[in-house]
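Quick start: read one record
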Amino acid sequence: MAKVVVSAGICGFSAVIKAKKDDNDKINLKITSPCEMIAKLGEELKSVDWTQAVTRYLTQSEVYRASNKHVFHTACPVPSAILKAIEVEAGLALPKDVHMKISP
């Protein structure tokens, strides 16, 4: 099981994403967050076909299409973190932390 913990930034919210591949090449997701938008996203993204989530174009990704319906902060890092968890669990990437340093 892949797990990603996100501290989203100035909003003060965090999210925990757990991804587990099943026998049918689906990735089962458990997304928890005190952010109402991310909680609603987690309700929709309970199971995804990783081939539909990890696509060449962002607008075709199942994760970003669902995010477009629920997450009204374009710069939210959580959708990207969901994709990172999916990539690791599907064997498409090794687990490696991602960092952003933001300065004025």
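The longest strand covers residues 14-21.
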